[in-house]
Amino acid sequence: MIKLKKYHGDLVQSLGFEQDRIQASIGVVGIGEFDFGTMHAETIKVTSGEISVWHEKANEWIKLAENQSYKVPAHCNYKLKADKMSSFICFYE
Questions:
Q1: What are the residue ranges spanned by the domains of the chain?
Q2: Distance between CA 39 and CA 73 in Å, rounded?
């Protein structure tokens, strides 16, 4: 089953799916800074553009370019920031 999610006035959108016990979503991030929270660890991989990631446990911005990834820890508030439209795939643990 594919599930569409929209956040922050539709500036962040993702299509989530689960297959063979793998949960993932693919999506786009518009220009801006966006707050999120997670219950489980998730790995964000940039597929086009650039996305910066901040989370409360590291307290610093990590800039990710195309094909770079970053693991956000479980039970964490985090932010995504993009200066141009960018895309990602996110794997959930």
A1: 3-92
A2: 9
